[in-house]
Amino acid sequence: MTLRVGIVGISGFGGGEALRLIAGHPAFELTYAAGEGSAGSRLGDRFPGAPARLAGMVIETWDPDALPSLDLLFASLPTGRSAAALARIPGEVKIVDIGGDHRDAEGWAYGLADVWPDRIKGQTRVANPGCFPAAALTALAPLLANSLVAPGNIVIDAKTGISGAGRGGGGGGFGYAESNENLVPYGLLQHVHMPEMARTIEQLSDGSAAGLVFTPHLVPMTRGILATIYCRGRATTQDCLEAARRFYAGRPFIRVTDKPPQTKWATGSNLAFVSYAADPTRELVMAMGVVDNLGKGAAGQAVQNANLICGLPETLGLEGMPVWP
Ligand SMILES: NC(=O)C1=CN([C@@H]2O[C@H](COP(=O)(O)OP(=O)(O)OC[C@H]3O[C@@H](n4cnc5c(N)ncnc54)[C@H](OP(=O)(O)O)[C@@H]3O)[C@@H](O)[C@H]2O)C=CC1
Ligand SMILES: CC(=O)N[C@@H](CCC(=O)OP(=O)(O)O)C(=O)O
């Protein structure tokens, strides 16, 4: 079975990673590519490494009313730009939205694929989590589901590679000269991912996440997110590791590690690495989550979600090892 797949926003970092994964996916055939400024150019000009069979494909001007016949559409548009357009896509076209417009929207499943695959199977509309929630919630889920930490006063300190800001670089200020040898906190107290994280912490714990603190930092690397999370609880390190190993037993993309995870472990993959350190005498539990922001944080998890909603093996097209070093 080959499914006809489209990507809108293909010229961007998220869309480009989706192209890379779909080009190697045994059940997906890219038949439609769309964008705005890139419309009219060929994939081979934008992506010199594109396979020969795709290099001549012309990027169309995005028009949801002029969609060719498709089974599946990946939308990788700036947040705020997809809700109105995707509402016009016929119901028989399955959609995975990599952007932020549908993470709390009626009729859309929140695609935290490693944590609740059964909520995603059978859906036709999936909202991919944001990149920071992908790292942080994956690490927190086993602790919350087992009541090992209190949900009300969690502090998430995250570091991200610069590709997280997209090709436009967060509206400027993220260029090489400004980012190299530099560390920048941003989005203090009000980052756009706060509501998504708070909502999911509450769903996983059945308690209030009112005291959630989240501070992202931009670090001079291309890809990767490390979330270091401070929680209150009396669990030991061993309790946390065992809970995570039970929670993720048989889940193919989660690695529970004794050692603190590193961003390079995940580069170019859909893997998430989680680890824990706890000191019951101080009622301190630390959780750590590592993902590639363009992998599990965007296109990797999007393909995983697409596999789930298309009734395919969850790992199809996603089994390549990370790039190292
Ligand atoms: N970068 C990351 O790590 C992550 C990104 N995301 C989310 O994914 C989405 C895409 O991000 P990212 O790839 O980084 O962003 P980029 O800025 O790299 O790419 C944006 C893409 O959107 C297209 N686009 C913009 N406006 C329009 C429009 N009106 N019509 C059609 N296409 C349009 C651009 O096309 P063109 O060049 O043709 O104009 C481009 O391909 C965002 O919502 C982002 O928040 C989510 C998780 C992680
Ligand atoms: C470095 C950087 O700017 N990263 C982005 C996260 C990208 C992401 O996950 O975006 P959406 O939730 O909009 O999909 C940010 O902090 O907003």
Automatic annotation (TrEMBL):
<dbReference type="InterPro" id="IPR050085">
    <property type="entry name" value="AGPR"/>
</dbReference>
<dbReference type="Pfam" id="PF22698">
    <property type="entry name" value="Semialdhyde_dhC_1"/>
</dbReference>
<dbReference type="GO" id="GO:0070401">
    <property type="term" value="F:NADP+ binding"/>
</dbReference>
<dbReference type="GO" id="GO:0003942">
    <property type="term" value="F:N-acetyl-gamma-glutamyl-phosphate reductase activity"/>
</dbReference>
<keyword id="KW-0055">Arginine biosynthesis</keyword>
<dbReference type="GO" id="GO:0051287">
    <property type="term" value="F:NAD binding"/>
</dbReference>
<keyword id="KW-0521">NADP</keyword>
<feature type="domain" description="Semialdehyde dehydrogenase NAD-binding">
    <location>
        <begin position="4"/>
        <end position="123"/>
    </location>
</feature>
<feature type="active site">
    <location>
        <position position="131"/>
    </location>
</feature>
<comment type="function">
    <text>Catalyzes the NADPH-dependent reduction of N-acetyl-5-glutamyl phosphate to yield N-acetyl-L-glutamate 5-semialdehyde.</text>
</comment>
<dbReference type="InterPro" id="IPR058924">
    <property type="entry name" value="AGPR_dimerisation_dom"/>
</dbReference>
<keyword id="KW-0560">Oxidoreductase</keyword>
<dbReference type="Pfam" id="PF01118">
    <property type="entry name" value="Semialdhyde_dh"/>
</dbReference>
<keyword id="KW-0028">Amino-acid biosynthesis</keyword>
<dbReference type="GO" id="GO:0005737">
    <property type="term" value="C:cytoplasm"/>
</dbReference>
<keyword id="KW-0963">Cytoplasm</keyword>
<comment type="pathway">
    <text>Amino-acid biosynthesis; L-arginine biosynthesis; N(2)-acetyl-L-ornithine from L-glutamate: step 3/4.</text>
</comment>
<dbReference type="GO" id="GO:0006526">
    <property type="term" value="P:L-arginine biosynthetic process"/>
</dbReference>
<protein>
    <recommendedName>
        <fullName>N-acetyl-gamma-glutamyl-phosphate reductase</fullName>
        <ecNumber>1.2.1.38</ecNumber>
    </recommendedName>
</protein>
<dbReference type="InterPro" id="IPR000534">
    <property type="entry name" value="Semialdehyde_DH_NAD-bd"/>
</dbReference>
<comment type="similarity">
    <text>Belongs to the NAGSA dehydrogenase family. Type 1 subfamily.</text>
</comment>
<dbReference type="InterPro" id="IPR036291">
    <property type="entry name" value="NAD(P)-bd_dom_sf"/>
</dbReference>
<dbReference type="InterPro" id="IPR000706">
    <property type="entry name" value="AGPR_type-1"/>
</dbReference>
